Structure formats: structure tokens, C-alpha cells
Amino acid sequence: MGAGSRQYWLQRAHDFGSEKTINEQQEQEQAQAQAQAQEQEQEQQQQQHYCIRVFVFGLLSFNVFCQQQIARIQWPNCARLLGKNYELSHGKLYYVALNRILFLTLLLKHL
User: Fold this and answer.
1) Residue of 97 and 37 predicted with greater confidence
2) Residue 89: helix, strand or coil by DSSP?
3) Domains: count for the chain
4) Where is this region: Disordered (predicted)?
5) How many CB atoms lie within 10 A of CB 36?
6) Please, are residues 89 and 70 in contact by the beta-carbon 8 Å criterion?
7) Are 62 and 105 within 8 A, CB to CB?
């Protein structure tokens, strides 16, 4: 009986050690998975911010380019706006409205 109970307790200690090792491995794997998921999320956010910056830069560059073209062309059929003496063509009014819509959409989407 003494040898049997000794064997039983040795087996129990071995099983407990195995369970402890397995639990530690699972905890390490979970911690690694969480760290990897956080790293991927940070990379994705950085990518999104980069894309937003590139888009805004492109939009501003396009805005400057279009304003330069509009200032150079100055269509003869112009509308006076708010009693000012500068000329705004129908094309420029349309462009300004479209530009504002795009910019506001961009801001609202990423707030």
C-alpha cells in the first residue's frame, strides 16, 4: 500500500507539473497573440493615417492647381457674387462647391 500510494502521489505531482507547464504555455501563446494583434492594429492605423495624409495633400495640390488654371483662364461669362468686384465663373463656383463637399465628407468620415 505504501508503494502504491507513493506511486499515486508521484503521478499526481507529475500531472500537476504537466498541467502547470501547459497552462504557462497557453498564457504565453495568448500574450504573444495579443501583442501581435495590437501590433497589426497599430500598423493598420498608421497606414490609414498615411493614406489620409496623402489624400489630403493630393486634394490640396489639386485645389491649388485648379485655382491656378481658373485664375489663368478667367472665362468671359462671369457672375458677380455678394457685390464683390472679382469675377467668378460658373465653372469655378461648381468646382468650389464640389471641393467643399469632398473635404467635408473626408473630415466627417475620419472624425
Assistant:
1) 37
2) strand
3) 1
4) 21-40
5) 10
6) yes
7) no
Burial call 79-95: b when 16+ CB within 10 Å, e when fewer: eeeeeeeeebbeebeeb
Q: What is the grid cell recorded at 98?
A: 464640389
- What is d(CA 66, CA 99) in angstroms, rounded to the nearest whole number? 10
| pLDDT the model gives residue 84 | 44
Give me the long-range contacts of 77-85 (CB less than 8 A, separation at least 24): none
Is the confidence at residue 56, as pLDDT, over 80?
no
Q: For 84, which DSSP code?
A: -
| Chain centroid, CA 73 distance in Å | 39
Q: Are 110 and 95 in contact (CB under 8 A)?
A: no
Q: pTM of the predicted model, to two decimals?
A: 0.39
User: What residues make up the domain containing 30?
Assistant: 2-109
C-alpha span between 32 and 39 (Å, rounded): 10
List the beta bridge partners of residue 87: 80
